[in-house]
Amino acid sequence: MIKPIKVLIVEDNEDDAALLVRALERGGFEPIYTRVDNAADLRTALSGSSWEIIICDHAMPQFDSFAALTIVKETGLDLPFIVVSGVIGEEVAVATMKAGAHDYLMKDKLLRLVPAIERELQEAEGRLQRRQAEEALRTSEERFRGLIENSPSAIFLNDREHRFRLVNKRFEQWYGVAEADVLGKTSYDLFPQEYADVYASQDQEVIETGTAIERELTVPFADGTLHPVLVTKYPVFDARGHPVGVGTINSDMTARKHAEDELRRQRDMLDVTLSSIGDAVIATDTHSRITFFNRVAEGLTGWPQQDALGRPLDEVFRIVHE
């Protein structure tokens, strides 16, 4: 399958440029290319079109690969840059790599050209995806910073490698750490391993499924107390819809649990009280289904309490509607 590729060739010799083009064609590419041989034309080509790769001769009469690399860096473009030379020593080859070239090869060994290009294109795509992921995370951070700083919940954002990218003030208070000391670290740097293992597993589940999850977890706070926490985790996507991180909202359930326990205690006391009085006591919900049925009501109706609960009141009393 022929693959179109946009190539900027920096070469003063037309015949050598033609050799490069033929090597690309033999390798399955359909090159769309422009040839330049000086700084001014290189700047014009870089600003006037989008390129996938640059192939540059090392030495030209008034130009060389070092000068070309400098110009490419000035543009801020991340383009694979391959140096091709008729004569190049090891020292110069190493120097070009240090200057920013991604690979170099000799003109009499162009069989390496296509594999080198395919590799560099793949690596360039990987770099692009990482930049997009980082940008997506930065955008999420900026968008929600004001909101999360005033949240009563601990909120934080991790990337795909589980490193913290953002934490709010509540997180700092609960876990006794400053954001500056957390960023770039993982849960294993902050929490006991048993908790870090759970967080890492949950993050991986969200990344792999691309869906939010909700779990209850008991978490140690900085003062050594254990708190029931509702953990809500959701995926953060890049512009192409790929999950690039995980956002987490930890809500302290301590007050709610205490309220539930108190309500349960009061209900138990009420049940005991109502069950001990001498009158039949029956309570129903808004749908007339029985929610409380004491022992006296059992004797009055002949229904055991466990059978009456949840049934319609008229069924228990066998009321026939006209």
How is this structure best described in words?
- The protein is an alpha/beta fold and 322 residues long.
- It folds into 3 domains: 3-129, Response regulator (Rossmann fold, 3-Layer(aba) Sandwich); 151-252, Beta-Lactamase; 262-317, PAS domain (Beta-Lactamase).
- Helices cover 46% and strands 25% of the residues.
- It contains 12 helices and 14 strands.
- The chain has helices at 14-26, 39-48, 65-75, 90-99, 113-149, 169-175, 179-182, 193-209, 254-276, 295-301, 305-308, 313-317; strands at 3-10, 29-36, 53-57, 59-60, 63-64, 81-85, 103-106, 154-159, 164-167, 213-220, 226-237, 243-252, 282-284, 290-293.
- The strands form 4 sheets. It has a 5-stranded parallel beta sheet, sandwiched between helices. It has a 5-stranded antiparallel beta sheet with strand order 9-8-12-11-10, sandwiched between helices.
